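CORE FACILITY INTAKE
Project code: CF-77B
Contact: R.S. (postdoc)
Sample description: multi-component assembly, two entities in total
Requested service: structural model of the whole complex
Turnaround: standard
Below are the sequence entries exactly as provided by the requester. Do not edit them.
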Amino acid sequence: MYFSSMLSVVFLGFGNVNRHLCEAFFSSEKIEVLQVYNRTIIELPPSHISINFTNEVQKIKKADVYIIGIADDAISSFSETLPFSDRLVVHTSGSVLMDSISNKNRKGVFYPLQTFSKSRKVNFSEIPICIEAESESDLKILQEMGEIISEKVVEISSEERKKLHLAAVFVNNFVNHLYQISEAILEKDSLPFELLKPLIKETAAKLDTLSPTEAQTGPAKRNDLKTIENHLYLLTEENYKKLYQQLTKSIQNAQREEL
Amino acid sequence: MYFSSMLSVVFLGFGNVNRHLCEAFFSSEKIEVLQVYNRTIIELPPSHISINFTNEVQKIKKADVYIIGIADDAISSFSETLPFSDRLVVHTSGSVLMDSISNKNRKGVFYPLQTFSKSRKVNFSEIPICIEAESESDLKILQEMGEIISEKVVEISSEERKKLHLAAVFVNNFVNHLYQISEAILEKDSLPFELLKPLIKETAAKLDTLSPTEAQTGPAKRNDLKTIENHLYLLTEENYKKLYQQLTKSIQNAQREEL
Protein backbone atom coordinates (compact mmCIF):
# COMPACT_ATOMS: atom_id res chain seq x y z
CA MET A 1 0.00 0.00 0.00
CA TYR A 2 1.18 3.48 -0.87
CA PHE A 3 -0.71 5.31 1.89
CA SER A 4 0.03 3.77 5.26
CA SER A 5 -3.05 5.00 7.11
CA MET A 6 -6.59 4.86 5.77
CA LEU A 7 -7.32 7.13 2.81
CA SER A 8 -9.89 9.83 3.60
CA VAL A 9 -12.24 11.43 1.06
CA VAL A 10 -14.73 14.29 0.98
CA PHE A 11 -17.48 14.41 -1.65
CA LEU A 12 -18.14 17.82 -3.13
CA GLY A 13 -21.62 17.73 -4.61
CA PHE A 14 -23.98 14.79 -4.33
CA GLY A 15 -25.43 13.99 -7.74
CA ASN A 16 -25.81 10.49 -9.17
CA VAL A 17 -22.09 9.75 -9.60
CA ASN A 18 -20.98 10.92 -6.16
CA ARG A 19 -23.99 9.31 -4.52
CA HIS A 20 -23.04 5.91 -5.97
CA LEU A 21 -19.31 6.40 -5.29
CA CYS A 22 -20.08 7.39 -1.72
CA GLU A 23 -22.14 4.26 -1.21
CA ALA A 24 -19.38 2.06 -2.62
CA PHE A 25 -16.60 3.70 -0.55
CA PHE A 26 -18.71 3.86 2.59
CA SER A 27 -19.15 0.09 2.59
CA SER A 28 -15.38 -0.47 2.23
CA GLU A 29 -13.06 -0.67 5.19
CA LYS A 30 -10.12 0.66 3.22
CA ILE A 31 -11.38 4.21 2.92
CA GLU A 32 -12.91 6.78 5.22
CA VAL A 33 -15.74 8.95 3.90
CA LEU A 34 -15.15 12.05 6.03
CA GLN A 35 -17.80 14.40 4.77
CA VAL A 36 -20.31 15.30 2.08
CA TYR A 37 -20.52 18.93 0.97
CA ASN A 38 -23.45 20.16 -1.10
CA ARG A 39 -24.42 23.73 -2.02
CA THR A 40 -27.99 23.13 -0.90
CA ILE A 41 -28.93 21.21 2.21
CA ILE A 42 -29.79 17.61 1.35
CA GLU A 43 -30.59 14.55 3.36
CA LEU A 44 -28.08 11.72 3.15
CA PRO A 45 -29.50 8.21 2.77
CA PRO A 46 -30.40 6.69 6.19
CA SER A 47 -27.47 4.27 6.01
CA HIS A 48 -25.05 7.22 5.61
CA ILE A 49 -26.38 9.22 8.53
CA SER A 50 -23.05 8.96 10.33
CA ILE A 51 -21.29 10.95 7.59
CA ASN A 52 -20.75 14.62 8.36
CA PHE A 53 -22.64 16.97 6.05
CA THR A 54 -22.05 20.65 5.31
CA ASN A 55 -23.31 23.22 2.84
CA GLU A 56 -20.56 25.74 3.68
CA VAL A 57 -17.26 25.59 1.78
CA GLN A 58 -15.53 27.11 4.82
CA LYS A 59 -16.41 24.03 6.84
CA ILE A 60 -14.99 21.47 4.42
CA LYS A 61 -12.68 19.16 6.35
CA LYS A 62 -9.10 18.22 5.61
CA ALA A 63 -8.94 15.03 3.56
CA ASP A 64 -6.58 13.10 1.27
CA VAL A 65 -8.86 13.35 -1.77
CA TYR A 66 -11.72 15.68 -2.70
CA ILE A 67 -14.14 14.32 -5.30
CA ILE A 68 -16.10 16.96 -7.23
CA GLY A 69 -19.36 15.65 -8.66
CA ILE A 70 -21.28 18.66 -9.99
CA ALA A 71 -22.46 19.97 -13.39
CA ASP A 72 -19.61 20.01 -15.94
CA ASP A 73 -19.65 23.74 -16.55
CA ALA A 74 -19.58 24.54 -12.82
CA ILE A 75 -16.47 22.48 -12.00
CA SER A 76 -13.92 25.16 -12.85
CA SER A 77 -15.48 28.07 -10.98
CA PHE A 78 -16.46 25.92 -8.00
CA SER A 79 -12.89 24.64 -7.64
CA GLU A 80 -11.74 28.27 -7.36
CA THR A 81 -13.91 28.79 -4.30
CA LEU A 82 -12.31 26.00 -2.28
CA PRO A 83 -10.68 27.63 0.79
CA PHE A 84 -7.54 25.45 0.83
CA SER A 85 -4.54 24.71 -1.37
CA ASP A 86 -2.08 21.98 -2.39
CA ARG A 87 -4.56 19.19 -1.75
CA LEU A 88 -5.67 16.53 -4.26
CA VAL A 89 -8.92 17.63 -5.94
CA VAL A 90 -10.42 15.43 -8.66
CA HIS A 91 -13.55 15.62 -10.78
CA THR A 92 -15.62 12.71 -12.12
CA SER A 93 -16.57 14.06 -15.54
CA GLY A 94 -15.98 12.43 -18.90
CA SER A 95 -15.84 15.64 -20.90
CA VAL A 96 -14.05 18.19 -18.70
CA LEU A 97 -10.28 18.69 -18.92
CA MET A 98 -8.23 18.00 -15.80
CA ASP A 99 -6.82 21.52 -16.14
CA SER A 100 -10.26 23.02 -15.58
CA ILE A 101 -9.64 22.50 -11.89
CA SER A 102 -8.13 25.52 -10.12
CA ASN A 103 -4.33 25.70 -10.05
CA LYS A 104 -4.18 26.26 -6.33
CA ASN A 105 -4.72 22.56 -5.67
CA ARG A 106 -3.23 19.34 -7.06
CA LYS A 107 -5.49 18.22 -9.90
CA GLY A 108 -6.84 14.87 -10.95
CA VAL A 109 -9.68 12.99 -12.61
CA PHE A 110 -11.58 9.96 -11.31
CA TYR A 111 -14.08 9.10 -14.06
CA PRO A 112 -16.19 5.95 -13.73
CA LEU A 113 -17.24 5.03 -17.26
CA GLN A 114 -20.84 4.09 -16.61
CA THR A 115 -24.37 5.53 -16.67
CA PHE A 116 -25.84 6.16 -13.24
CA SER A 117 -29.48 6.48 -12.23
CA LYS A 118 -30.72 7.30 -8.79
CA SER A 119 -32.93 4.23 -8.69
CA ARG A 120 -30.51 1.57 -9.92
CA LYS A 121 -27.92 -0.36 -7.90
CA VAL A 122 -24.40 -0.25 -9.31
CA ASN A 123 -21.76 -2.95 -9.16
CA PHE A 124 -18.53 -1.01 -9.48
CA SER A 125 -16.26 -4.03 -9.73
CA GLU A 126 -16.59 -4.24 -13.54
CA ILE A 127 -16.79 -0.52 -14.21
CA PRO A 128 -13.64 1.02 -15.73
CA ILE A 129 -12.31 3.88 -13.59
CA CYS A 130 -10.38 6.30 -15.79
CA ILE A 131 -7.80 8.20 -13.76
CA GLU A 132 -5.52 11.13 -14.48
CA ALA A 133 -3.22 13.21 -12.27
CA GLU A 134 -0.33 15.67 -12.59
CA SER A 135 2.19 13.65 -10.58
CA GLU A 136 3.10 9.99 -10.28
CA SER A 137 2.40 10.05 -6.55
CA ASP A 138 -1.14 11.43 -7.01
CA LEU A 139 -1.76 8.96 -9.81
CA LYS A 140 -0.82 6.21 -7.39
CA ILE A 141 -3.30 7.49 -4.81
CA LEU A 142 -6.08 7.49 -7.43
CA GLN A 143 -5.01 4.04 -8.62
CA GLU A 144 -5.31 2.63 -5.11
CA MET A 145 -8.57 4.46 -4.52
CA GLY A 146 -9.97 3.04 -7.76
CA GLU A 147 -8.88 -0.48 -6.94
CA ILE A 148 -10.88 -0.39 -3.73
CA ILE A 149 -14.07 -0.51 -5.79
CA SER A 150 -13.11 -1.67 -9.30
CA GLU A 151 -11.03 -4.35 -10.97
CA LYS A 152 -10.39 -2.08 -13.92
CA VAL A 153 -8.49 1.14 -13.21
CA VAL A 154 -6.87 2.71 -16.28
CA GLU A 155 -4.78 5.81 -16.81
CA ILE A 156 -6.44 7.98 -19.47
CA SER A 157 -5.29 11.45 -20.54
CA SER A 158 -7.72 14.35 -20.89
CA GLU A 159 -7.49 14.12 -24.69
CA GLU A 160 -8.23 10.38 -24.66
CA ARG A 161 -11.04 10.86 -22.18
CA LYS A 162 -12.75 13.27 -24.59
CA LYS A 163 -12.82 10.51 -27.23
CA LEU A 164 -14.04 7.96 -24.72
CA HIS A 165 -16.84 10.27 -23.69
CA LEU A 166 -17.80 10.90 -27.31
CA ALA A 167 -17.88 7.15 -27.98
CA ALA A 168 -19.93 6.70 -24.80
CA VAL A 169 -22.52 9.17 -26.10
CA PHE A 170 -22.99 6.93 -29.15
CA VAL A 171 -23.40 3.65 -27.21
CA ASN A 172 -25.43 5.12 -24.37
CA ASN A 173 -27.39 8.32 -25.17
CA PHE A 174 -27.86 7.63 -28.88
CA VAL A 175 -28.58 3.93 -28.42
CA ASN A 176 -31.14 4.75 -25.75
CA HIS A 177 -32.79 7.18 -28.14
CA LEU A 178 -33.12 4.39 -30.72
CA TYR A 179 -34.88 2.37 -27.99
CA GLN A 180 -37.17 5.36 -27.52
CA ILE A 181 -37.95 5.56 -31.24
CA SER A 182 -38.75 1.86 -31.46
CA GLU A 183 -41.06 2.21 -28.46
CA ALA A 184 -42.84 5.08 -30.22
CA ILE A 185 -43.22 2.99 -33.41
CA LEU A 186 -44.80 0.13 -31.46
CA GLU A 187 -46.99 2.38 -29.31
CA LYS A 188 -48.79 3.67 -32.39
CA ASP A 189 -50.15 0.14 -32.93
CA SER A 190 -50.51 -0.66 -29.23
CA LEU A 191 -47.78 -3.29 -29.51
CA PRO A 192 -45.89 -3.92 -26.24
CA PHE A 193 -42.26 -2.71 -26.09
CA GLU A 194 -41.64 -5.75 -23.84
CA LEU A 195 -41.46 -7.91 -26.97
CA LEU A 196 -38.20 -6.23 -27.99
CA LYS A 197 -36.35 -6.62 -24.70
CA PRO A 198 -34.77 -10.04 -25.33
CA LEU A 199 -33.52 -8.70 -28.69
CA ILE A 200 -32.13 -5.55 -27.04
CA LYS A 201 -30.26 -7.60 -24.45
CA GLU A 202 -28.86 -10.07 -26.96
CA THR A 203 -27.70 -7.22 -29.22
CA ALA A 204 -25.57 -5.95 -26.32
CA ALA A 205 -24.54 -9.44 -25.13
CA LYS A 206 -23.33 -10.45 -28.60
CA LEU A 207 -20.31 -8.20 -28.10
CA ASP A 208 -18.96 -10.78 -25.62
CA THR A 209 -18.10 -13.01 -28.55
CA LEU A 210 -18.37 -10.89 -31.72
CA SER A 211 -17.03 -7.50 -32.78
CA PRO A 212 -19.71 -4.98 -33.83
CA THR A 213 -18.62 -5.47 -37.45
CA GLU A 214 -19.05 -9.23 -37.20
CA ALA A 215 -22.39 -8.84 -35.43
CA GLN A 216 -23.92 -6.51 -38.06
CA THR A 217 -26.98 -7.93 -39.84
CA GLY A 218 -30.18 -6.53 -41.36
CA PRO A 219 -31.62 -5.00 -44.54
CA ALA A 220 -28.99 -2.23 -44.81
CA LYS A 221 -26.10 -4.68 -44.64
CA ARG A 222 -27.79 -7.07 -47.12
CA ASN A 223 -28.71 -4.10 -49.31
CA ASP A 224 -32.28 -5.46 -49.23
CA LEU A 225 -33.85 -2.51 -51.07
CA LYS A 226 -37.39 -3.90 -50.94
CA THR A 227 -37.43 -4.10 -47.14
CA ILE A 228 -35.74 -0.69 -46.81
CA GLU A 229 -38.41 0.82 -49.05
CA ASN A 230 -41.18 -0.82 -47.04
CA HIS A 231 -39.72 0.48 -43.80
CA LEU A 232 -39.45 4.03 -45.13
CA TYR A 233 -43.08 3.81 -46.20
CA LEU A 234 -44.12 2.68 -42.70
CA LEU A 235 -42.23 5.53 -41.01
CA THR A 236 -44.65 8.42 -41.12
CA GLU A 237 -42.56 10.78 -39.00
CA GLU A 238 -40.11 12.78 -41.13
CA ASN A 239 -37.45 12.81 -38.41
CA TYR A 240 -37.44 9.00 -38.04
CA LYS A 241 -37.37 8.58 -41.81
CA LYS A 242 -34.25 10.76 -42.06
CA LEU A 243 -32.54 8.84 -39.27
CA TYR A 244 -33.41 5.53 -40.93
CA GLN A 245 -31.91 6.72 -44.22
CA GLN A 246 -28.81 8.17 -42.59
CA LEU A 247 -28.13 5.04 -40.52
CA THR A 248 -28.74 2.78 -43.52
CA LYS A 249 -26.29 4.81 -45.58
CA SER A 250 -23.74 4.70 -42.79
CA ILE A 251 -24.02 0.90 -42.46
CA GLN A 252 -23.51 0.56 -46.19
CA ASN A 253 -20.46 2.87 -46.09
CA ALA A 254 -18.93 0.79 -43.29
CA GLN A 255 -19.74 -2.32 -45.30
CA ARG A 256 -17.87 -1.00 -48.34
CA GLU A 257 -14.84 -0.18 -46.24
CA GLU A 258 -14.75 -3.77 -45.05
CA LEU A 259 -14.54 -5.18 -48.58
CA MET B 1 -52.93 -31.00 -25.93
CA TYR B 2 -54.54 -30.25 -29.26
CA PHE B 3 -52.56 -32.84 -31.25
CA SER B 4 -52.82 -36.27 -29.69
CA SER B 5 -49.68 -37.79 -31.17
CA MET B 6 -46.30 -36.10 -31.33
CA LEU B 7 -46.09 -33.13 -33.67
CA SER B 8 -43.72 -33.67 -36.58
CA VAL B 9 -41.78 -30.93 -38.38
CA VAL B 10 -39.60 -30.60 -41.45
CA PHE B 11 -37.14 -27.71 -41.81
CA LEU B 12 -36.95 -26.20 -45.29
CA GLY B 13 -33.63 -24.38 -45.50
CA PHE B 14 -31.00 -24.39 -42.77
CA GLY B 15 -29.86 -20.84 -42.12
CA ASN B 16 -29.31 -19.37 -38.66
CA VAL B 17 -32.97 -19.31 -37.58
CA ASN B 18 -33.84 -22.85 -38.67
CA ARG B 19 -30.55 -24.17 -37.33
CA HIS B 20 -31.33 -22.82 -33.85
CA LEU B 21 -35.01 -23.86 -34.00
CA CYS B 22 -33.96 -27.35 -35.07
CA GLU B 23 -31.59 -27.63 -32.14
CA ALA B 24 -34.27 -26.50 -29.70
CA PHE B 25 -36.95 -28.82 -31.08
CA PHE B 26 -34.58 -31.74 -31.44
CA SER B 27 -33.80 -31.68 -27.74
CA SER B 28 -37.52 -31.69 -26.83
CA GLU B 29 -39.50 -34.86 -26.43
CA LYS B 30 -42.70 -33.20 -27.48
CA ILE B 31 -41.81 -32.81 -31.13
CA GLU B 32 -40.29 -34.96 -33.84
CA VAL B 33 -37.81 -33.37 -36.25
CA LEU B 34 -38.46 -35.57 -39.27
CA GLN B 35 -36.17 -34.06 -41.83
CA VAL B 36 -34.05 -31.13 -42.96
CA TYR B 37 -34.27 -30.03 -46.59
CA ASN B 38 -31.70 -27.68 -48.08
CA ARG B 39 -31.15 -26.68 -51.71
CA THR B 40 -27.46 -27.46 -51.46
CA ILE B 41 -26.00 -30.43 -49.64
CA ILE B 42 -24.92 -29.45 -46.12
CA GLU B 43 -23.65 -31.36 -43.14
CA LEU B 44 -25.91 -31.40 -40.10
CA PRO B 45 -24.24 -30.87 -36.73
CA PRO B 46 -22.86 -34.16 -35.30
CA SER B 47 -25.58 -34.25 -32.63
CA HIS B 48 -28.27 -34.11 -35.35
CA ILE B 49 -26.83 -36.91 -37.44
CA SER B 50 -29.94 -39.06 -36.92
CA ILE B 51 -32.13 -36.51 -38.73
CA ASN B 52 -32.89 -37.33 -42.34
CA PHE B 53 -31.47 -34.87 -44.85
CA THR B 54 -32.45 -34.23 -48.45
CA ASN B 55 -31.69 -31.65 -51.11
CA GLU B 56 -34.56 -32.77 -53.41
CA VAL B 57 -38.00 -31.23 -52.95
CA GLN B 58 -39.54 -34.44 -54.31
CA LYS B 59 -38.19 -36.35 -51.32
CA ILE B 60 -39.61 -34.04 -48.64
CA LYS B 61 -41.49 -36.18 -46.10
CA LYS B 62 -45.05 -35.81 -44.86
CA ALA B 63 -45.13 -33.75 -41.66
CA ASP B 64 -47.52 -31.71 -39.51
CA VAL B 65 -45.60 -28.46 -39.99
CA TYR B 66 -43.07 -27.25 -42.55
CA ILE B 67 -40.81 -24.41 -41.43
CA ILE B 68 -39.32 -22.32 -44.22
CA GLY B 69 -36.10 -20.56 -43.23
CA ILE B 70 -34.62 -19.07 -46.39
CA ALA B 71 -33.92 -15.57 -47.80
CA ASP B 72 -37.00 -13.31 -47.57
CA ASP B 73 -37.36 -12.74 -51.28
CA ALA B 74 -37.11 -16.45 -52.08
CA ILE B 75 -39.93 -17.58 -49.74
CA SER B 76 -42.79 -17.00 -52.18
CA SER B 77 -41.32 -18.73 -55.23
CA PHE B 78 -39.86 -21.56 -53.16
CA SER B 79 -43.24 -22.29 -51.57
CA GLU B 80 -44.69 -22.71 -55.09
CA THR B 81 -42.25 -25.53 -55.83
CA LEU B 82 -43.38 -27.69 -52.89
CA PRO B 83 -44.85 -30.91 -54.38
CA PHE B 84 -47.75 -31.25 -51.90
CA SER B 85 -50.87 -29.36 -50.87
CA ASP B 86 -53.16 -28.60 -47.94
CA ARG B 87 -50.40 -28.96 -45.39
CA LEU B 88 -49.30 -26.33 -42.84
CA VAL B 89 -46.36 -24.34 -44.23
CA VAL B 90 -44.94 -21.47 -42.17
CA HIS B 91 -42.09 -19.04 -42.64
CA THR B 92 -39.90 -17.48 -39.94
CA SER B 93 -39.42 -13.99 -41.36
CA GLY B 94 -40.23 -10.70 -39.67
CA SER B 95 -40.85 -8.74 -42.83
CA VAL B 96 -42.62 -11.13 -45.22
CA LEU B 97 -46.43 -11.29 -45.39
CA MET B 98 -48.08 -14.60 -44.52
CA ASP B 99 -49.84 -14.42 -47.89
CA SER B 100 -46.51 -14.63 -49.70
CA ILE B 101 -46.68 -18.37 -49.14
CA SER B 102 -48.28 -20.30 -52.03
CA ASN B 103 -52.07 -20.77 -51.86
CA LYS B 104 -51.88 -24.49 -52.40
CA ASN B 105 -50.92 -25.06 -48.75
CA ARG B 106 -52.24 -23.81 -45.41
CA LYS B 107 -50.21 -20.75 -44.50
CA GLY B 108 -48.69 -19.53 -41.29
CA VAL B 109 -45.86 -17.60 -39.66
CA PHE B 110 -43.57 -18.67 -36.82
CA TYR B 111 -41.31 -15.67 -36.18
CA PRO B 112 -38.89 -15.77 -33.24
CA LEU B 113 -38.12 -12.15 -32.41
CA GLN B 114 -34.39 -12.46 -31.82
CA THR B 115 -31.05 -12.05 -33.57
CA PHE B 116 -29.31 -15.32 -34.34
CA SER B 117 -25.64 -15.95 -35.01
CA LYS B 118 -24.13 -19.25 -35.97
CA SER B 119 -21.67 -19.15 -33.09
CA ARG B 120 -23.96 -18.13 -30.21
CA LYS B 121 -26.12 -20.39 -28.04
CA VAL B 122 -29.76 -19.33 -27.83
CA ASN B 123 -32.10 -19.73 -24.89
CA PHE B 124 -35.52 -19.75 -26.53
CA SER B 125 -37.52 -19.71 -23.31
CA GLU B 126 -37.55 -15.88 -23.13
CA ILE B 127 -37.75 -15.20 -26.86
CA PRO B 128 -41.16 -14.02 -28.09
CA ILE B 129 -42.51 -16.29 -30.81
CA CYS B 130 -44.87 -14.32 -33.05
CA ILE B 131 -47.39 -16.60 -34.72
CA GLU B 132 -50.00 -16.13 -37.42
CA ALA B 133 -52.25 -18.58 -39.29
CA GLU B 134 -55.36 -18.57 -41.47
CA SER B 135 -57.47 -20.83 -39.24
CA GLU B 136 -58.01 -21.20 -35.52
CA SER B 137 -56.93 -24.83 -35.66
CA ASP B 138 -53.61 -24.01 -37.35
CA LEU B 139 -53.06 -21.15 -34.93
CA LYS B 140 -53.49 -23.63 -32.12
CA ILE B 141 -50.88 -25.95 -33.62
CA LEU B 142 -48.40 -23.07 -33.87
CA GLN B 143 -49.26 -21.96 -30.33
CA GLU B 144 -48.49 -25.42 -28.95
CA MET B 145 -45.38 -25.70 -31.08
CA GLY B 146 -44.18 -22.32 -29.81
CA GLU B 147 -44.87 -23.22 -26.18
CA ILE B 148 -42.56 -26.21 -26.47
CA ILE B 149 -39.61 -23.86 -26.64
CA SER B 150 -40.80 -20.45 -25.37
CA GLU B 151 -42.78 -18.98 -22.51
CA LYS B 152 -43.92 -16.11 -24.71
CA VAL B 153 -46.02 -17.04 -27.74
CA VAL B 154 -48.08 -14.17 -29.16
CA GLU B 155 -50.49 -13.88 -32.06
CA ILE B 156 -49.30 -11.07 -34.35
CA SER B 157 -50.87 -10.12 -37.69
CA SER B 158 -48.76 -9.56 -40.81
CA GLU B 159 -49.35 -5.80 -40.53
CA GLU B 160 -48.29 -5.74 -36.88
CA ARG B 161 -45.29 -7.93 -37.63
CA LYS B 162 -44.07 -5.36 -40.17
CA LYS B 163 -44.01 -2.70 -37.43
CA LEU B 164 -42.31 -5.06 -35.01
CA HIS B 165 -39.66 -5.83 -37.57
CA LEU B 166 -39.12 -2.14 -38.28
CA ALA B 167 -38.76 -1.43 -34.54
CA ALA B 168 -36.38 -4.41 -34.29
CA VAL B 169 -34.16 -2.87 -36.99
CA PHE B 170 -33.78 0.22 -34.80
CA VAL B 171 -32.88 -1.63 -31.58
CA ASN B 172 -30.74 -4.30 -33.24
CA ASN B 173 -29.18 -3.32 -36.61
CA PHE B 174 -29.00 0.42 -35.96
CA VAL B 175 -27.90 0.06 -32.34
CA ASN B 176 -25.18 -2.36 -33.41
CA HIS B 177 -24.01 0.15 -35.99
CA LEU B 178 -23.66 2.77 -33.24
CA TYR B 179 -21.47 0.24 -31.40
CA GLN B 180 -19.43 -0.03 -34.60
CA ILE B 181 -19.03 3.74 -34.87
CA SER B 182 -17.91 4.05 -31.26
CA GLU B 183 -15.38 1.30 -31.84
CA ALA B 184 -14.06 3.20 -34.87
CA ILE B 185 -13.79 6.42 -32.82
CA LEU B 186 -11.74 4.63 -30.14
CA GLU B 187 -9.59 2.69 -32.61
CA LYS B 188 -8.24 5.93 -34.04
CA ASP B 189 -6.60 6.61 -30.67
CA SER B 190 -5.80 2.97 -29.92
CA LEU B 191 -8.28 2.99 -27.03
CA PRO B 192 -9.78 -0.43 -26.24
CA PHE B 193 -13.48 -0.92 -27.07
CA GLU B 194 -13.59 -3.21 -24.00
CA LEU B 195 -13.84 -0.09 -21.82
CA LEU B 196 -17.33 0.61 -23.17
CA LYS B 197 -18.82 -2.85 -22.61
CA PRO B 198 -20.11 -2.33 -19.05
CA LEU B 199 -21.80 0.88 -20.26
CA ILE B 200 -23.32 -0.91 -23.25
CA LYS B 201 -24.74 -3.65 -21.04
CA GLU B 202 -26.11 -1.26 -18.43
CA THR B 203 -27.76 0.86 -21.15
CA ALA B 204 -29.71 -2.25 -22.22
CA ALA B 205 -30.29 -3.51 -18.65
CA LYS B 206 -31.73 -0.17 -17.52
CA LEU B 207 -34.88 -0.98 -19.48
CA ASP B 208 -35.73 -3.54 -16.80
CA THR B 209 -36.66 -0.70 -14.49
CA LEU B 210 -36.90 2.47 -16.60
CA SER B 211 -38.64 3.37 -19.85
CA PRO B 212 -36.34 4.66 -22.63
CA THR B 213 -37.72 8.15 -22.03
CA GLU B 214 -36.91 7.97 -18.31
CA ALA B 215 -33.48 6.53 -19.04
CA GLN B 216 -32.44 9.28 -21.49
CA THR B 217 -29.43 11.34 -20.37
CA GLY B 218 -26.55 13.15 -22.07
CA PRO B 219 -25.56 16.44 -23.71
CA ALA B 220 -28.45 16.44 -26.23
CA LYS B 221 -31.06 16.02 -23.51
CA ARG B 222 -29.39 18.66 -21.30
CA ASN B 223 -28.96 20.91 -24.34
CA ASP B 224 -25.29 21.18 -23.32
CA LEU B 225 -24.18 23.14 -26.39
CA LYS B 226 -20.55 23.35 -25.37
CA THR B 227 -20.13 19.57 -25.18
CA ILE B 228 -22.11 19.06 -28.40
CA GLU B 229 -19.82 21.53 -30.16
CA ASN B 230 -16.72 19.80 -28.80
CA HIS B 231 -18.00 16.43 -29.96
CA LEU B 232 -18.73 17.70 -33.46
CA TYR B 233 -15.22 19.11 -33.60
CA LEU B 234 -13.75 15.74 -32.59
CA LEU B 235 -15.75 13.86 -35.25
CA THR B 236 -13.62 14.17 -38.34
CA GLU B 237 -15.72 11.85 -40.51
CA GLU B 238 -18.52 13.73 -42.24
CA ASN B 239 -20.91 10.78 -42.03
CA TYR B 240 -20.54 10.44 -38.24
CA LYS B 241 -20.91 14.19 -37.82
CA LYS B 242 -24.23 14.11 -39.68
CA LEU B 243 -25.47 11.19 -37.61
CA TYR B 244 -24.46 12.95 -34.39
CA GLN B 245 -26.38 16.07 -35.42
CA GLN B 246 -29.44 14.14 -36.57
CA LEU B 247 -29.61 12.05 -33.40
CA THR B 248 -29.07 15.10 -31.19
CA LYS B 249 -31.89 16.91 -32.98
CA SER B 250 -34.15 13.89 -32.63
CA ILE B 251 -33.47 13.60 -28.87
CA GLN B 252 -34.30 17.28 -28.48
CA ASN B 253 -37.53 16.86 -30.47
CA ALA B 254 -38.57 13.95 -28.26
CA GLN B 255 -37.67 16.06 -25.25
CA ARG B 256 -39.94 18.90 -26.39
CA GLU B 257 -42.83 16.49 -26.91
CA GLU B 258 -42.42 15.31 -23.33
CA LEU B 259 -42.84 18.82 -21.92
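Facility notes:
- Chain B has two domains: 7-156, 161-258.
- The longest strand of chain B covers residues 31-37.
Invoice: internal transfer
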